[in-house]
Amino acid sequence: MSAFKIATFNINGIRSRLPALLAWLEREAPDVACLQELKAADAAFPIDAIRQAGYGAVWHGQTSWNGVAVLAKGADPVEVRRGLPGDPDDKHSRYLEAEVNGILVASLYLPNGNPQPGPKFDYKLAWFERLIEHAATLVRKRQPVVLAGDYNVVPTDEDIYNPRSWLKDALLQPESRECYRRLLAQGWTDALRARYPDERIYTFWDYFRQHWQKNSGLRIDHLLLNAGAASQLRDAGVDRWVRGEAHASDHAPTWIVLG
Length: 259
Hints:
CATH superfamily: Endonuclease/exonuclease/phosphatase
Oligomer: single chain
Radius of gyration: 17 Å
Structural class: alpha+beta
Strand order of the largest sheet: 3-4-2-1-12-11
Number of helices: 6
């Protein structure tokens, strides 16, 4: 397979940041783009503008909150699964699977979980358990599988500028990190960490206290690869320039190249 770029990007409102999305797609031209936090109902998804940019898409929206999508350059992704199994009463739009070019790609937006302790953190952990259970069926597939998205988990203290000021945050709790560790233990490869085993590399800088200007970041956007995808991993990185643009999302696109 020739080089094939798969990216994940928490857009933090697709309607208000559509120009930023289109500028990124034009400059970086990923073959697949997984989006999170659309914050738009299905009918409000800007499919016409995305098609004009050369991308097909499937999406799972939700008014004002959540929402995930999979975009494919010059192709229409084939939807495989809408929503994470295990809780028919969960109405949050947080998980979408699609096939593109023989690769199974999932766009996921794991619950934030704050404040913790409390019902939001309980929901985060319950959702994580459902993801672990479902991922166990995907990791064994012979075809390449990529689980891409905003996991709302800082895996280790090496993935944050300073853990002390975040000790009470749901992103750093031992329970959150243990769930991520158990997910990886199924056989998934954390692509960004595999590419940069010893470097501090971030994907998210919040809007407070000049954290972007000071590079006070967190690594919470991850692309996990099963063996079929990991064997083809050529490169991985973060499009930091996107975070520095005007009216930017607090996340930067994170990507891999398979080939």
